[in-house]
């Protein structure tokens, strides 16, 4: 099997150390905190509540629709 065309060096890279991983995670966390400002706790609760209510409404509507599709119509006639 031939080496991939994107390979630039034949020297194997050094093993990844725990310090390398920790420094990269700190860098990512710092970037995320810069991009996403702190949201007040009340806004988080409100968003969670709205998402929960929306989930319940969607489940109700889908269940109601399914129930209507599967229900049998019985017609009774008097002679």
Topology as a string of helices (H) and strands (E): HH
Report the helical percentage.
Answer: 55-70%
Our measurement of the CA-to-CA distance between the termini, rounded to an integer number of angstroms, reads 85 Å
- Uncertain spans, ≥5 residues at pLDDT below 50? none
Task: Give the oligomer, counting copies of the same chain as homo and different chains as hetero.
Answer: single chain
What's the overall geometry? elongated
Largest sheet, in brief, is: none
Compute the number of strand runs: 0
* Continuous helix count: 2
- Tell me the radius of gyration: 29 Å
Q: Estimate the mean pLDDT confidence.
A: 79
β-sheet strand percentage: under 5%
Q: Which class of secondary structure composition applies to the elements?
A: mainly alpha
Description:
- The N and C termini lie far apart (85 Å).
- The model has no long low-confidence stretch (mean pLDDT 79).
- The chain contains 2 helices and no strands.
- It has a domain at 42-74.
- The chain is elongated and about 95 Å long.
- The protein is mainly α and 79 residues long.
- The chain is 61% helix and 0% strand.
- The chain has helices at 18-35, 41-70.
Highlighted features:
single chain, 79 residues, mainly alpha, 61% helix
Topology:
Blueprint: H1 18-35, H2 41-70
């Amino acid at each position: 099997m031939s080496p991939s065309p994107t390979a630039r060096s034949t020297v194997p890279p050094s093993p990844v150390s725990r310090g390398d991983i920790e420094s990269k995670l700190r860098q990512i966390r710092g970037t995320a905190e810069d991009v996403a400002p702190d949201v007040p706790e009340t806004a988080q609760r409100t968003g969670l509540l709205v998402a929960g209510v929306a989930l319940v409404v969607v489940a109700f509507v889908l269940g109601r629709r399914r129930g209507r599709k599967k229900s049998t119509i019985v017609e009774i006639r008097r002679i």
